[in-house]
Amino acid sequence: MALARSRRRDRSADYWPGFVDAMASILLVIIFLLSLFMLAQFFLSQEISGRDAVLSRLNTQIAELTELLALESTGQDELKESISLLQSNLTDADDEKARLAELLDNQSGANTAADGAISELNDELDSERQLNARAQAQVDLLNQQLAALRRQISSLENALDVSEESSKESQTKITDLGSRLNVALAQRVQELSRYRSDFFGRLREILSNRSDVRVVGDRFVFQSEVLFGSGNDDLNPRGAEEMGKLAAAILELQGQIPDEINWVLRVDGHTDARPVSGSGRFANNWELSSSRAISVVQFLVSQGVPPNRLVAAGFGEFQPLDDGDSPEALARNRRIELKLTER
User: Fold this and answer.
1) pLDDT tens digit sequence for 6-53
2) What is this structure's pTM?
3) Domain hosting residue 304, numbered range
4) Which of 91, 88, 97 is nearest to 121 (CA)?
5) Residues paired with 340 in a beta bridge
6) Alpha carbon 298 to chain centroid, angstroms
7) Quick one: 177 and 50 in the same domain?
8) CATH code at position 279
9) List of residues 6+ apart from 111 with CB closer than 8 A
């Protein structure tokens, strides 16, 4: 009857690791996607900030050039008004000259005075012509400067267009990179989940006849009494035998996992809540749990498992499976947990 109940418990527990595997995989995907999204947003914000700074400087230059163009246009208008005034004066002078010539014809006695007036008018006309020539030269210079300003504005507008196009291309590349990374991440998570399931299946085959080894979530749990003596961190013969089977399973699985999957086997040491005496090698439960995890890792390394695929961690009494203080609860909390995960 007891054997039947034990088998029913084993069968009922077989569904839970698969469910936890799926939830862990989904959680890994979500965490990686969030990390990727934050990384993409960071690089995008850096890119956009740079583009915004360039656009701001270009807009400032355009505003300054536009203001200068307005000032030059105002100066050109004033020069045109001056030229118009000079031309009006020149016309008036020509009319005056014509009237004086008429007076010369009608008043021969006033030839000397008329000649002086005509000479004076000619001098004024020459002076005004010189002023007109200088004004025209200034207008030509202003026209050249305006043409140069227009060319600079056109060049700046072209630079703005190129900058905006480059920003769009960068955004497209970031989006495409994110999509490809998401696909790669999903594939990696699926592959690791598959090999984790294979690893669990292989360990179940090896440890199927042991009642003191059980599955809790996505971990295999060994009771400390199976591997160590009380308050000790040295593997006993029975524990060495079990860890030898584990090492063989790891080496078998290692040859199947692709090199690009950066997997590790995490070995976690746990104790119960009772304090150690403090007079021995260990000052507290934390030291004892860490030392036991390291002992398991060192044994696996001695059996050929690569050290870079192993992690040892000690949790002391701070991660109990059972919050009770009965002998059974304390025994459940004294344990070594094994978890296949990605570094």
Assistant:
1) 555 555 556 677 777 788 888 888 888 878 778 777 777 777 777 777
2) 0.45
3) 210-342
4) 97
5) 265
6) 39
7) yes
8) 3.30.1330.60
9) 104
